[in-house]
Amino acid sequence: MMSQSTVTFLLLLCFVCFAGTVKSVAVGKSSSSLGYIKTSCSTTLYPKLCMQSLSVYANKIKGNPQHLAEAALSVSINKAESASVYVSMMTRVKGLKGRESQAVKDCLDNMKDTVDRLSRSMKEMGQTGRSTSQSDFSWHMSNVQTWVSAALTDENTCVDGFAGHSMDGNVKTAIRARISDVAHFTSNALALINRYASKHQA
Predict the structure, then answer these.
(1) Rounded to an integer, what distance in angstroms lies between the CA atom of residue 42 and that of residue 153?
(2) Pectinesterase inhibitor domain: from which residue to which, for each copy (predicted)?
(3) Do 122 and 73 meet the contact criterion of CB atoms below 8 Å apart?
(4) 7-13 contacts, C-beta under 8 A, 24 or more apart
(5) Do 155 and 179 form a contact (C-beta atoms < 8 A)?
(6) Which CA distances in Å does 84 have to 88, 95, 107?
(7) H-type alpha helices, 42-169
(8) What is the pLDDT of residues 20-78, one digit of tens each?
(9) Contact status, residue 65 vs residue 195, Cβ threshold 8 Å
(10) Region 4-201: CATH code
(11) pLDDT digits (tens, 9 = 90+) for 77-107
């Protein structure tokens, strides 16, 4: 008969082996998901940014194109909301006047529209997964693509509003950098949304 210490040792050994197996399986799934994200991101204009922002969602995405598009859209919404708050703060900067003041106010309106359109797109994305026919899917997907494209236009419009050397300065530099960053995320989201649409139609 084995001693109690031997039994304890064997049980501990089994536990360690089991834990190692579970960890290996988990890592394997994660690696597979990361590979899928990397391949998908290679079709975007900013693949490195795409990979960096979406890798944390690997276990949720799990090779699902809808989940991937939704994750990218979620990142874009968060960035747009943050940028909108930032631009709102910039409207209170002392010394703003003339074209510069108007450009900041117009940009704030653009960013509010961006947040609204991206948020509506996220809700509509949920409908695509519940579509019962191709025509139903295409209807919801068309809405998503239209709103995300419009959001990207709003972001570019904000940046264009500061065109010209007359407005060169810290405010212009700060806002354009922040909004350009948001536009990159939105561009990536739109690319992955289009990829999801094409795969579903195929």
Answers:
(1) 23
(2) 32-192
(3) yes
(4) none
(5) yes
(6) 6, 20, 9
(7) 47-54, 58-61, 65-90, 98-128, 134-160
(8) 433 333 334 467 889 999 999 999 999 999 999 999 999 999 899 999 999 999 999 99
(9) yes
(10) 1.20.140.40
(11) 999 999 999 999 999 988 888 899 999 999 9
What residues have CB less than 8 Å from 147, skipping those under 6 apart?
117, 118, 120, 121, 124
DSSP state of 55: G
Residue 202: CB atoms within 10 Å: 5
Closest CA to 42 of 196, 188, 148: 188
CA distance 118 to 64: 20
Distance CA 59, CA 87 (A): 34
Residue 98 exposure: Cα atoms within 13 Å on the Cβ side = 4
> What is the tens place of the pLDDT at every residue in 136-193?
999 999 999 999 999 999 999 999 999 988 888 899 999 999 999 999 999 999 999 9
